[in-house]
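Listing S7. Sequence submitted for prediction.
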Amino acid sequence: MPSRPAPGSPAPHRQADWPAALLAGLLAGVIFLLLNVLLCQQLLANPWLPLQMPAALVLGVEALPPAPVEGFLVPVAGLVVHLLLAIGFTCLIAFCLHRWGILIGLVGGSLFGLCLYSINYYFVADFVSGFVALRGWLMLASHCVFGAAAGGLYEFLERDHR
């Protein structure tokens, strides 16, 4: 029979709720993708860009504009990479922020999104040259929305592990 901690002693470390993190990552990834498709269509006239960027990580810069999107390879590769990254980053948010509540999930997740934007557009851009042209408020804002959605959804979905 598991023993309970003595009164006044620190609570045992609780692990993140990984099923909640996976679902939150999937949902936040879809929100991020839809937001970027809408913004890129309206402001950049290229709704494929949110799928071309993650596809370029595995297919190379040939997947980036001005190359036309023909066939299913670029969209499918982009979608798979995008969702895997979204789930992975949400798991990292869950590991760091679990059990702090929805408000911290939203704010902390948004700050995580800001860090993610900085890494993507100021480090990864050195290796995938097409990313440099997309530095700016559009991607900054959408990364912050992704982080807030991931953190908030995770905290909302997290089960109580008592």
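Caption to Listing S7: primary sequence and predicted structure tokens for the chain studied. The mean pLDDT is 87. The chain is about 65% helix and 0% strand.
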